[in-house]
Design a protein that fits this description.
The chain is built from 9 helices and 16 strands. The protein is of the alpha+beta class. The chain has a single domain, classed as B-lactam Antibiotic, Isopenicillin N Synthase, Chain (Jelly Rolls). A hairpin with a 5-residue loop joins strand 4 and strand 5. Helix 2 crosses helix 6 and helix 3 packs across helix 6. It is globular.
């Protein structure tokens, strides 16, 4: 089977001795060097909370476009609704022999973020953009808040596991994430019956890596579902466990570990005529770190020895989004 993707039971990890953690950490380290993802169980997220957020988000996507447009995002880093534009375009070859299309990805998303405020309007606008909750569906805020409260708890537990796996103090990452930037995303992937034939090389979500440190994903299994990539196996479908979350590493964690661990390259396959009525909805929690954190790549042997340049966390993310806030203060 391609891609040995381990599963870490967070409850068992918490209760394990240092000696019992050693083989778990070794398997985890190998997977993060190779692919950049693992699964977590024992996370304590109630299924009812997960189901409620997914169902309420689906109600939002079913609203008329004229309603959703009121909450459309106005900038790449903004919160709100991201529209799926009509398909069309021509595929072009890119790395690893895949096809990347000039046609847009086949999904809609709704983004929310933290409510932190520093009193600095410029800093808050780029780091903590205001959320835009739909007045037509007040239940969405309640469901999203309940779910993200668990994500914030789980991601810090994951950060502690990652620090210990690297041989660092357990609070190495959590101590740098007291007012972290993050985005909770609900992404709806419509069916083949709804969108029709897709362009060559078009995906529900095209090949990419995430920009932050850690992403927590609650996904649904599907014919047109998630695929991940590594150098040995190419593209493959990772294991699916309905009771587990996927953890994948982003660009900031690859930078922080100086290339020891890789940001997960992944994609979501296009809707398939083999499952014409299949629609999927993913809940994706993108976590970064405190926005002013200067990420200095860890020295070998903890770090991977690639000699990557340091970067300020939030500025790095914004620049990859095509935003260059030269006046944004750091430090």
């Amino acid at each position: 089977m391609p891609g040995k993707i381990p599963e870490v039971d967070l409850e068992a990890w918490r209760d394990a001795s240092d000696a019992e953690r050693v083989p778990i950490a070794a398997r985890l380290d190998a997977a993060l060097r190779d692919t950049g993802m693992f699964l977590v169980s024992g996370h304590g997220v109630p299924q009812a909370v997960n189901d409620d957020f997914r169902a309420t988000a689906k109600q939002f996507f079913a609203l008329p476009k004229v309603v959703k447009t009121q909450y459309a995002i106005g900038a790449a880093y903004d919160s709100g609704w991201l529209e799926m534009h009509p398909p069309g375009g021509v595929g072009v070859p890119v790395n690893e022999g895949e096809q990347a299309s000039s046609a847009p990805d086949l999904h809609e998303s709704f983004y929310v973020g933290p409510g932190h405020r520093t009193g600095d309007e410029q800093r808050d606008r780029f780091n903590y953009p205001a959320n835009r909750w739909p007045a037509e569906l007040t239940e969405l805020r309640t469901a999203a808040d309940a779910y993200t409260a668990h994500m914030l708890r789980v991601v810090q537990a994951v950060n502690e596991v990652l620090a210990v796996t690297l041989g660092l103090p357990e609070d190495f990452f959590t101590s740098r994430a007291r007012m972290a930037t993050w985005t909770q995303n609900a992404s709806w992937y419509p069916s083949y019956a709804a969108v029709g034939e897709v362009a060559r090389g078009q995906f529900r979500n095209g090949p990419h890596t995430d920009l932050g440190t850690v992403t927590l994903l609650s996904r649904q299994r599907g014919v047109g579902g998630l695929q991940v990539w590594n150098e040995k196996d190419g593209w493959f479908s990772p294991p699916y466990s309905p009771d587990s979350l996927i953890v994948n590493l982003g660009d900031l964690m690859e930078l922080w570990t100086d290339g020891r661990w890789r940001a997960l390259k992944h994609r979501v396959l296009p809707p398939s005529p083999d499952a014409p009525d299949e629609e999927l909805l993913s809940l994706v929690f993108f976590f970064e770190t405190d926005p002013d954190t200067l990420i200095e790549p860890l020295a070998a042997p903890v770090g991977g020895g690639r000699g990557l340049p340091p970067a300020y966390a939030r500025r790095s993310v914004l620049e990859k989004l095509g935003v260059f806030p030269d006046s944004l203060p750091v430090g």
